[in-house]
């Protein structure tokens, strides 16, 4: 019987990976061993040498994602599925939930205020300018939460009390993250929030935005002046 290796791919953490390896190896299953994944080269179409890989870090490392996809194509069982990662963001998860009957907070996705790298105003000729802010705010309501549409760790999460508050905090984002807006029953460790309050949260992908409604507007915008041509 050939030896089947179970590998675990991880980052800074040590407690779970080491405990998992120890627990598997303690079972003394003939032909099965567990170890940290070791990568010294990645060649297309070549097997990884592992029967199973448990992934706990590739969400932060594109190189690892490519490695795991290649491993999966060559017969390795990868947990979690590396091909699902591309669809694993908050807004898609909410959309999917609405289609399978899982209750989720009211959520909209919004563009970032600044232009993404390697783009200009001409890259967004299909984007209405301004967006329908009145309908968006009415649908979600306040208080609300705005957060990047992908990622975790409670980074760049803001509680929003009004349209003016939204404009101010949305202006803090850059071209590298988008945001979500939805209702939550609790929100621990959130900037300016209390865990017991019922509130909403916002989702935004990367695209330029200059909000315009009856609410007080920012006095300046990072968008090119000719973006006004988007107005309909």
What does this structure look like?
By secondary structure, the protein is α/β, with parallel strands linked by helices. The protein folds into two domains: 4-85, Rossmann fold (3-Layer(aba) Sandwich); 90-230, no CATH class. 22% of the residues lie in helices and 16% in strands. It has helices at 15-26, 62-73, 90-99, 133-140, 163-170, and strands at 4-9, 32-36, 52-55, 77-79, 108-110, 144-148, 158-160, 179-182, 202-204. It has a four-stranded parallel β-sheet, sandwiched between helices. A three-stranded mixed β-sheet has the order 7-6-9, covered by helices on one side. Strand 1 (4-9), helix 1 (15-26) and strand 2 form a beta-alpha-beta unit. It is elongated and about 65 Å long. The termini are far apart. The model is unreliable at 185-232 (pLDDT under 50).
Quick rundown:
By secondary structure, the chain is of the alpha/beta class. The chain contains five helices and nine strands.
């Amino acid at each position: 019987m050939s030896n089947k290796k179970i590998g675990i791919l991880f980052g800074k953490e040590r407690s779970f990976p080491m405990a998992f390896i120890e627990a598997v190896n303690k079972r003394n299953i003939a032909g099965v061993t567990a170890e940290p994944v070791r990568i010294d080269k990645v060649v297309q179409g070549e097997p990884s040498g592992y029967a199973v890989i448990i992934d706990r870090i590739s969400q932060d490392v594109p190189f690892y994602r490519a490695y795991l996809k290649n491993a999966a194509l060559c017969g390795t069982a990868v947990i979690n599925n590396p091909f699902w990662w591309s669809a694993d963001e908050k807004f898609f998860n909410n959309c999917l939930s609405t289609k399978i009957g899982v209750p989720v907070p009211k959520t909209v996705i919004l563009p970032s205020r600044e232009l993404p790298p390697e783009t200009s105003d001409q890259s967004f000729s299909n984007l209405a300018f301004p967006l329908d802010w009145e309908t968006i705010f009415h649908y979600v309501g306040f208080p609300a939460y705005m957060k990047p549409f992908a990622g975790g760790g409670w980074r760049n999460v803001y509680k929003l009390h009004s349209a003016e508050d939204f404009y101010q905090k949305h202006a803090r984002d850059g071209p590298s993250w988008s945001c979500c807006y939805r209702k939550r029953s609790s929100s621990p460790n959130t900037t300016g929030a209390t865990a017991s309050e019922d509130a909403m949260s916002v989702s935004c992908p990367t695209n330029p935005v200059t909000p315009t409604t009856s609410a007080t507007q920012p006095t300046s915008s990072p968008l090119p002046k000719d973006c006004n041509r988007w107005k309909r």
